[in-house]
Write a structure and sequence with these properties.
The protein is mostly helical and about 250 residues long. The protein has three domains: about 70 residues, Multidrug-efflux Transporter Regulator, Chain: A, Domain 2 (Orthogonal Bundle), CATH 1.10.1660; about 35 residues; about 140 residues, Orthogonal Bundle (Globin-like), CATH 1.10.490. The protein is about 70% helix and about 5% strand. A three-stranded antiparallel sheet has the order 1-3-2. A hairpin with a 5-residue loop joins strand 2 and strand 3. Helix 9 runs antiparallel to helix 10 and helix 11 packs across helix 12. The relative contact order is 0.06. This is Transcriptional regulator. GO terms for molecular function: DNA binding; DNA-binding transcription factor activity. It comes from Streptomyces mutabilis. Keywords: Activator, Coiled coil, DNA-binding, Transcription, Transcription regulation.
Length: about 250
């Protein structure tokens, strides 16, 4: 069975002009011609066209595609394996690019005006935007959310780096207290909890002791918070929660 140039163009999603060009340069020469001299393509020709389009999609120049396909020692299965490897690598690259674009859009919605590279430099492997949709659904109508959006809208890379440095220092402080055997309701631990609350107020939104206590509960009730916090030291999330609660009780007294 053979196919006209128009049929092949429709099958493959290419233009008739492209098929004519492939014929002219010897990359895809139709196996047959009609009595009127029109090109006729066989199933084998379609297989070759598929190989050409694979490599073209991957960015190979036509002359390199010709070399790859016309190598007499080439194994067709080896071609398929190579194409699969190349396509898999490209898919991974495109997925990373899509994720970077998505994070950039989320960052804009949060007011975090950083490039993906800058965000990596500031936050490392932690993505501060990954829960933005959930945050917006849960607290989008609250004053705290609006205050945070307003404050962070003008933050620069240096501002976010300062906040991250403050958070890292506070984490080290809590870890040191744990390792020193200080109870979570000790003065030192409660002071660290109060500094944590003041940092939220200073950098994000008004955070009363009741709200701070709710945040502390999330540290242990939401495994995502627990996992991130406990990365510094196992049990840190629970220790911070207890210190925050003790600090709230101290101020109520």
């Amino acid at each position: 069975m053979s196919y006209s140039v128009g049929q092949v163009a429709g099958f493959a999603g290419v233009t008739v002009r492209a098929l004519h060009h492939y014929d002219d340069i010897g990359l895809l020469v139709p196996s047959e011609r009609s009595h009127a001299g029109h090109r006729r393509y066989s199933d084998a020709d379609l297989d070759r066209l598929q190989q050409i389009l694979f490599y073209r999609e991957l960015g190979f120049p036509l002359d390199e595609v010709a070399v790859l396909l016309d190598d007499p020692d080439a194994d067709p299965r080896a071609h398929l394996r190579r194409q699969h490897e190349l396509l898999t690598a490209r898919i991974e690259k495109l997925e990373k690019m899509a994720a970077a674009v998505e994070h950039a859009m989320e960052a804009r919605s949060m007011g975090i005006n950083l490039t993906p590279q800058e965000k990596f430099e500031v936050f490392g492997d932690f993505d501060p935007d990954q829960y933005e949709e959930e945050v917006r659904e849960r607290w989008g109508n609250t004053d705290a959310y609006r205050q945070s959006k307003e404050k962070t809208a003008s933050y620069t890379k240096e501002d976010w780096q300062r906040l991250q440095d403050e958070a890292d220092e506070l984490t080290r402080r809590f870890v040191a207290l744990m390792e020193a055997g200080e109870p979570a309701d000790s003065e030192a631990a409660m002071d660290a909890a109060e500094d944590h609350r003041q940092g939220i107020i200073r950098n994000h939104y008004d955070c009363g002791h009741e709200m701070h206590t709710c945040l502390g509960e999330m540290f242990v009730s939401d495994e995502r918070f627990t996992r991130n916090i406990d990365a510094a030291k196992p049990g840190l999330a629970a220790y911070m929660r207890d210190a925050i609660l003790a600090n709230a009780v101290r101020h109520r007294g």
